[in-house]
Amino acid sequence: MMASELLPAVLLISVASLAGLAAGAARAGGVAIYWGQNGNEGTLAQTCASGNYRFVNVAFLYTFGKGQTPLLNLAGHCDPASNGCTGVGADVRSCQRLGIKVMLSIGGAVGSYGLSSRADARQVARHLWENYLGGTSPSRPLGDAVLDGVDFDIESGGSAHWDELARELKKYSGKGRERRRVYLAAAPQCPFPDASLGGLGGALGTGLFDYVWVQFYNNPPCQYTTDGGVGNLARAWEQWTAIPAKQVFLGLPAAPEAAGTGFVEATDLVSKVLPVVKKSKKYGGIMLWSRFYDGKTGYSDKVKPSL
């Protein structure tokens, strides 16, 4: 075959190779991180400027619903009660300029929250919209920044009405002064279905959640262990990736002391766990608890190139 006859074939191979590379890049996972529960973890702006994260969950709105006044806690960073956290809004905007989605995380392991009715869910959604999303409340705890959405880290407060809260929040998409989409995320425990948010049913069965970062820690029956291997995690992951969410993330502690159980050494994550979870088309990356611990161990630095 002459050189001129080879040229089209070479071009086809090159185009196919580029397409493959593009598809691989599109499948590359990102890191979601929790920020806000340790004053020694640096600012939100510094967290985003690290270049390690695609999502940051600002944690936590730990009191809401059932007629309670909603309360935000950002630990040692600032005091929302004295209007001391409005400056965080500038950090939110700096993160967003870098293409990072910033979510408000509601709930947490320690808090007083729950929903008593559909009307209660509607009222909580209105509060979130007016104070953290695209609304215009004069007393916005994080200033005038418009967060990208809400993360449901519901670890108590029962299982009722979370689906209604999700529906009410999604109704605000495209509204307000910036007409932004309202993204929804959730952080269920890895035993399937989640006791609060469900799985194929419940809030997570609504199909309204964009990102679900499943906590594969503090739950030994569905965790990876060096002795037991990846089998239990793989079975739970298969169940979670069947839910009607756009992307599912593997949630892990960023240090052994960040959780009671479930820490996975970076080498094991890369060589044993990621090859299993990345098979799913819904794989979105990993979630880490938390920025403070990730700063101590450099966990995201170690695993990011393999995501």
UniProtKB/TrEMBL annotation:
Its EC number is 3.2.1.14. The keyword Signal applies. It is an enzyme of class 3 (hydrolase). GO terms for biological process: chitin catabolic process; polysaccharide catabolic process. Keywords: Carbohydrate metabolism, Chitin degradation, Disulfide bond, Glycosidase, Hydrolase, Polysaccharide degradation, Signal. Residues 1-28 form the signal peptide. GO terms for cellular component: extracellular region. The keyword Signal applies. Pfam families: Glyco_hydro_18. It catalyses: Random endo-hydrolysis of N-acetyl-beta-D-glucosaminide (1->4)-beta-linkages in chitin and chitodextrins. GO terms for molecular function: endochitinase activity. Residues 29-307 form the GH18 domain. Belongs to the glycosyl hydrolase 18 family. This is chitinase. It comes from Aegilops tauschii subsp. strangulata (Goatgrass).
